[in-house]
Specification:
398 residues; two-stranded antiparallel ribbon; mainly alpha; single chain; transmembrane
Amino acid sequence: MLKRNTQNIYNFPINGSQIFFIAFVIFFVSSFIQDTTLAEALNGRFLRLCSYLALPLLLFKIYVLDRWSKKELVIITILILLGMINWRMAHELQLLTIVPFVIGAKNVNFKDIITWYLYLNVILLLAMAIFSLLGVIPNLIYRAAPRPPRYSLGLIYTSSLATHYFYLVLAYCYLRFNKLRWFDYLFIFVGDVIFMMITNTKLDFIATMIVIPVMIIAQRAFRGHKLSEILASFWWMAVPISASIIIFTSYFYDASNHIMRKINDITSGRLSLGYQAFSNYDVKLLGQTIVEHTYGGSKGLKLANQIDGVSHYFFIDSSYVRMILLWGILSFVLIIGCMTYIAIRSTFRQTFILTAIILVAALNFMFEPDIIKIIYNPFLLALFAIPNFYNTQEEKHK
């Protein structure tokens, strides 16, 4: 009997999707905790080691379980090595893991990825909020007149909380795309108002509001309404256009220009910070290390509450400016190309859902640094994953 059970264990079929989701959960949970005040009480090195555990699982899936040709494996190896070089140059863990995750998502149902993402995010956000309100972990409160108090609810910064809600809304819209009704949009609106009251993060609030009309148009386009189809057919250009705008305005920012100064004020100083980054650092091919001082975490809270805290603050908030300066031109071109391709593919298939998501996300990328952070943005994984939505003819064939 024991021998038979042992043989059953050895003969247990290994499923590539199972391997992927084990890696996904390990990386997601450890990375999420690193973005919370709980990480200050835990060993940061231990959390990073947990994140690294996802890599051998993904590499096993890619090189052993997935069916890539020899030429494709050579290209994949080069991309993984490029990610390793960028990681060493910029010292950002996400650069090491994003390539294996994107490629490792091959033959994995994208709907399942978004479902796991949604549930993990909601569970962890609720857990951190409860722990912070009970005093188990710090609930960072930022007070800066004339703004009302801003609460992080266990995360390292208030905008992190608002950004999580923004991407949760996008994930929710993806999963319910065919079923979205007025009460879904009311739910999104009410949630956005609540998070605005907690975090007072204007840019994420506006970005989440934009989701509602964009999704309505995308739904109409998916159902064959001509005007909506025409509008949605141009959305694939959102990433390269928004990247060009924020990089151009940041590089040529002039505080004496009234219009630029007004835009800079509206975007909480994003243009001036981008200009400062371009002034202090050159654009490199493979990235570089940039020293930043943020308001995140308990140390950041102390900096924020100092009288001269603003003068010491320096962080590249824009994903596009961050990519081209911190990660280098090669990574910038690859990521922009991948996001644009996903949007184009969704447009040609006439499904429009990922095109709509990338349109709204592209606007958020202009002012937030989370373009490749899987705990925020899981939509890069759609590149090789199995799609969930098809056009009418494909749906009938399927």
